[in-house]
Amino acid sequence: MSAGRVTPNQPGERVGATAKHTVAPTLSDTRGFRHQLRAWLENHRASFKDSLSRLVRQPLGSFFTCLVMAVALSLPMGLALLLENVSQLGGSWQRAAQISLFLELDSGDTYGELLRDKIAEHEHVAEAQWISREQALAEFQEHSGLGEALRELPDNPLPGSILVTPEMIDKDTLVALLDELKNMPKVEQAQLDLMWIERLAAILQMGDHFIFALSVLLIAALLLVVGNTIRLHIENRRVEIEVIKLVGGTDGYVRRPFLYMGVLYGLAGGVLAWLLLAFGLEWLNASVVQLAQLYGSEFSLSGVSLEDGFSLLLGAVLLGYIAAWLAVARHLRELLPR
């Protein structure tokens, strides 16, 4: 076997072939990527500018569409904020949900104060107040109108008591706390108006369900409104879209301006909804403060926080985007070049 022949176990080499080497990215490839990125950004900028100009050229129609979105967005958000403000009447509700512990008559003030301090350290207790027998008798004489009759009694018949303010209003937690407190030494009786707590929880739960159902209905209405508006824009540009698809335009290229239009509708509607809520709550707050002062309370409505406002804007933009996507996806397959 000659040295020049290639055996089956030896790798062959094509005559005139160059040696294999790894191709490194050249400067022209980098410039090509930058050019594609610049073209992509320029296309998005042009689509955004075109969508914005079309909305500006129809100010009245665009404003009413955004106003409808604002009203639909502000209704459930406003009700949720009102329910949250009502829930923040925690001080008044907690006082109404206080647990009254009546101690045995032979319990002195020293034991009552020690028991009060022990109860105040409980994780589910916000505050504990000790009312001595003398203080309880003085308050009863003042509010009952039986002062003269009570002074004729040989002994004070009223026991010392501890008013326990719970940390939170929850039926199961309150029941467990009541069972724990009434089993403490020298506690003769423990009282809690559970029926009132159940009614309050039912009212709050009903409010939550109502707001959820209203939100679902209004979100569906928003999708229909924005989707129908985008559909009208599509019909107005049918010939233009058919020409674009005829020369090879992709569905993404055709879809992009309408998606930006949906986002702009959602953004403008969210801003208007935020303004409506801010001014509406401020206007309502004047009456609420006046009513609260009649009951000796300093309660007032809190406005729209930045977190709630930005959540509202984000939700509005997402709704506009989804509505535009659904509208374009439904009609895009119909816009084939004839």
Describe the protein's architecture and organization:
The protein is an alpha+beta fold. It has 2 domains: about 45-90 and about 200-330, no CATH class; about 100-190, Alpha-Beta Plaits (2-Layer Sandwich). Helix content is about 70%, strand content about 5%. It has helices at about 25-55, 60-85, 90-95, 110-120, 135-145, 145-150, 170-180, 195-235, 240-245, 250-295, 305-330; strands spanning about 100-105, 125-130, 160-165, 185-190. The chain has a 4-stranded antiparallel sheet. It is elongated and about 105 Å long. The model is unreliable at about 10-20 (pLDDT under 50).
Topology at a glance:
Blueprint: H1 27-56, H2 59-87, H3 90-96, E1 99-103, H4 109-120, E2 125-131, H5 133-144, H6 147-151, E3 161-166, H7 171-182, E4 187-191, H8 194-236, H9 238-246, H10 251-294, H11 306-332
Antiparallel strand pairs: 1-3, 1-4, 2-3
Helix pairs in contact: 1-10, 2-8, 2-10, 8-10, 8-11, 10-11
Count of alpha/pi helices: 11
Mean pLDDT: 78
Low-confidence stretches: 10-18
Please trace the helix and strand order, writing H or E for each element. HHHEHEHHEHEHHHH
Largest sheet: 4 strands, antiparallel
**Basic shape:** elongated
| Binned strand content | 5-15%
Q: Could you give the distance between the termini?
A: 72 Å
Count of domain modules: 2
Strand order of the largest sheet: 2-3-1-4
Radius of gyration: 37 Å
